[in-house]
Amino acid sequence: MATEPRLHVDTDLKAGGEIALEKDQAHYLRNVMRLGHGATLKLFNGRDGEWRAAIDHVSKSRVDVALLDQVRAQAEEPDLWLLFAPIKGKRVDTIAEKAGELGASEIRPVLTERTVVGRVNTERLAANAREAAEQCERLTLPTVHEPQKLETVIAAWPEDRQLLFADERANAAPIAEALAQCCPGGRWAVLIGPEGGFSPSEQQMIRALPQSVPVSLGPRLLRADTAAFAALALWQAHLGDWRNGDGGFE
Amino acid sequence: MATEPRLHVDTDLKAGGEIALEKDQAHYLRNVMRLGHGATLKLFNGRDGEWRAAIDHVSKSRVDVALLDQVRAQAEEPDLWLLFAPIKGKRVDTIAEKAGELGASEIRPVLTERTVVGRVNTERLAANAREAAEQCERLTLPTVHEPQKLETVIAAWPEDRQLLFADERANAAPIAEALAQCCPGGRWAVLIGPEGGFSPSEQQMIRALPQSVPVSLGPRLLRADTAAFAALALWQAHLGDWRNGDGGFE
C-alpha cells in the first residue's frame, strides 16, 4: 500500500506557501521514498492543521514543496502528560513511540530513588515520538522535557492537574472503576514508577497530593513500559479522545 | 533489589519433590545469577501453583532443586486469546512479551490478505511469552499456536467465544463503551489486523460473525503492536482480572 508521506515541520502552513524541507526530510523523500517533482505529501506543524503539499523542486541538496490546501483543521487534543522513570535500552524508545501514538501531550522523565538510569537521551525520545506522531496522523508532537527529580515535580505539582498513578499497594481501586468516576477531559498526567517500584516514602508523597488518583493495574507485575501503555490507553478510552466513535475530541 | 528467580518447569510440583532443571535454566542460575547451594527460587508449571525451592546440587552440567513449600495455589485465569497478523522484526517479540504480561491465555498468529510476513518463529514467540510470564508472576504460560489463515480461523470460530476486534471503520463503538455493555469473564479473543488493515472482504467476514464485537481505538492510526497492548489492557480492566483491587479472578 503506497501511502503519502506525512511530515512535521516548524514553518507556518498557509495557502500559497513554499517550504524548503529539513535536510533529513529531503533525504527521506528523495532517497528512501524515491519521490520526484509533483509527488504529494502531508505536512503539519501543531498549529495550522494538516496540509497537502506537492514537491516542486528536487536537487542533490534540497527538496522544496508548495502547499496546496488544508486537509484538516487544527483541533484541540487531550492534555495528558506522561511521567515515567527512565529505563534501559530500547524500551525507553518504545515508551516515547507509544506516548506519541497514544496521544500524550508531554513526555517527562522523572528520576526516582530506585531509578537506575541517570542519563536520558531526550533528543532520541523526541525523534521517536515525532516519527510516531507523523505515522499515526496526529496533529501535534508531544513535548519532551529534560529529566527532573520526582520530588521536585511533586513539590511544584499544578493545582489543576490530576495525577493517575499505578500503585502496587493492594488497596488501590481497579483502573476502569477509578476512571469511570472521573469527568472526561481536563488536565491529567500518568505517572509510572521504575522497575523496582516507588520507595515507600515516594508512594506516601504521591498519595498525599490531593490531585492523585491511585489505581491498580491487576494482579501481574507489569514492566514499566507495559504499565505506561496500559494507563495511557485506559485514560484515552475513558476520559480522552477514544470516547467518540468518530474520533473527535471535545 | 535482589529478587528470587522465578522459573517455569514442566515437571509436577509436590512436597518432597526433586527437580533437575533444564540446561538453559541451570546455566542461568549458575552463571548469570551466580547462585549456589541453598539459594532459593520460585517454580510454577501452570497446574500446581507456585512453589519455593532450594538449590541442593550444582555441578558443571546441572542444577538440582528440592521443592520446599507451595507459596500460591493454582487459580483460574482469564480465557483470552490474542490473534494478530505477524509483523516484522522486534515488534513481534514485544507482542509476545506483552501478551504474557497482559494475561493472554493463547497467542495465535493469523495470516491475512495484507500480511507481509509469512514465516513466524513460534519458538521465539513462546520464549518471549515465557520469560514475561516468569517475571510478571503469572501462574501459567500462554500457549503459542502455529499461524493459520484468517479465513480458516473464522470459519471454525467457537460458538461460545466472543471476538473483540479493532475496526477502523468510523461507526464502531468506542472500546470502553462497548466493553461496559459486556459481562465480565467468559471466553474471549482479541483480533488485531496487519499494518495495512483488514481487506474489505475480511472486515465483512469478521463483522458477520455473531460473536464479533467491533470497537474503535480512537482517532489516531495505531500500529498493530500498540493496538494489541491497548485492547488486551482494556479487556483485562473491564472484563478480566484487573477488575478486583486485590488481584483475584472469579
Notes on the structure:
- Helices cover 29% and strands 26% of the residues of chain A.
- Chain A is of the alpha/beta class and 250 residues long.
- Chain A folds into 2 domains: 6-72, Ribosomal Protein L25, Chain P (Beta Barrel), CATH 2.40.240.20; 79-238, Alpha/beta knot (3-Layer(aba) Sandwich).
- In chain A, strands 6, 7, 8, 9, 10, 11, 12 and 13 form an 8-stranded parallel sheet that branches.
- In chain A, helix 2 (90-101) packs parallel to helix 3.
- Chains A and B meet through helix 2, strand 11, helix 5 and helix 7 of A and helix 2, strand 11, helix 5 and helix 7 of B.
What distinguishing features does this structure have?
homodimer; alpha/beta; Alpha/beta knot; elongated; 26% strand; 7 helices; disordered C terminus
